[in-house]
Amino acid sequence: MTRHTHPDAHPDDPHYISRSGWLRAAVLGANDGIVSIGSMVVGVAAVAGEHESVLLAGVAGLVAGAMSMAAGEYVSVSSQADIERADIHRETRALHADPEVELEELIAIYETRGLAPDTARLVAVELTEHDALGAHLRDELGLNEAHSPNPMLAALASGATFAVAGALPLSGVVLAPPGAVVITVLAMTLLALAALGIIGAKVGGAPIGRAVTRVIIWGVAAMAITALISRLAGVSLG
């Protein structure tokens, strides 16, 4: 994609949208780490209360989950990048094969956005002369540099945050007094989810209350369902 340097009215305070690529992966990884490990530990503890068994299951889940998140995020974002590259190649060929048709297409796009026909034509012509491919990628396909996928960055952000965040509920197993593993892990998980909601809201410029409520509700629901299924499975197997 063609890159240009644009003036910025607030270079020291970039738009939140510029963080969307890595922030989405980081929040996904952290949330999945907290909920997955918390649910796993609570589920195992509901059936087998031994500290060693619960801790071993949690550690195994933490390592496997972090690797899985990183690999899955890399493959997913790479697929998105492949689609974008294919569209860019297709648009490049179209501009060389039918420049007039592509110009009329650009004019129609600007007209639908509210520009008068003469103004739309003037804008389309000038943008085509300046950077035809960039104009079509931005205004026809909705592609821009801020949303350009970075598979490696997404994989690192997702895998690392899964491991770090997942270690928080797992630490509840180590800190729990005898017979209180489930309660301790639940408390650590809720604290971790609340912290994730606050951090994600701060970094993304979103309302804190709504973000915290969202992650806690879904996290608690996931753990409750996991614990229930584990309990039922343990009873039926026993």
Please describe the topology of this protein.
Blueprint lengths: L19 H28 L3 H47 L1 H14 L4 H23 L11 H25 L5 H24 L3 H30 L1
Could you tell me the number of beta strands? 0
| CA distance, first residue to last residue | 60 Å
* Residues in helix, %: over 70%
The residue ranges in which pLDDT falls below 50 over 5 or more consecutive positions are 1-7
When the domains are counted, the total is: 1
**SSE order in H/E notation?**
HHHHHHH
Q: State Rg.
A: 24 Å
Identify the overall geometry: elongated
| Whole-number mean pLDDT | 81
User: How many distinct helices?
Assistant: 7
The chain-level structural class is: mainly alpha
Percent of residues in beta strands: under 5%
Summarize the biggest pleated sheet.
Answer: none
Q: How would you characterize this protein structure?
A:
The protein is mostly helical and 238 residues long. The chain is 80% helix and 0% strand. The longest helix has 47 residues, at 51-97. The termini are far apart.
